[in-house]
Design goal:
single chain; about 70 residues; mainly alpha; transmembrane; transmembrane helix; membrane
Amino acid sequence: MMRLVLLLLIAAALVFAGGQALKALRGLARRRAAPPVPQEDAMPAPFRTIAYIVLLALMAGTATGLLGAG
């Protein structure tokens, strides 16, 4: 049962990551038309969100014993 939950979590994370990636690409297209704005963060927010979700999925898989040393 936990494997099914982890599979659904990873599938949802992939769908969310795809949406964030499309949003980031649209934002890059808009930024090319507008003058550059200085940013404090080196990583855009959508990519940071994707990284956090992948990290959470990895931690959940490791904590349940489905990922890592067997």
